[in-house]
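Encoded backbone
================
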Amino acid sequence: MSRSQAADPVRRRFLGRLLLGASLAPLALLRSSRSQAAELPLLQPSSPAARKLKYVADASQAKAAAKGDSCAGCGLYQGTYGSKQGPCQLFPGKDVLASGWCSSWEPQM
């Protein structure tokens, strides 16, 4: 068996998977844009989870926050760039304000 004959099934499998992935990619993008479109309820600073992590809606009101630190610059914040609010990994099912801050703030990588 020559080298080209041995590589032929591998090439076919690769091309088949490539075509399958290319055909499914638009569906994945469509689904993710729909899930991001719905805003979640806003986290209230008075909630037990927010108080536990010392969440404030305005980072300038947090004594422990360094200048310029806010949810928008946190690695746990999942809102889109430039958004006013978005989801946070620490508060599932709730949006936090991009201008907010909590004691678990970590810089984005």
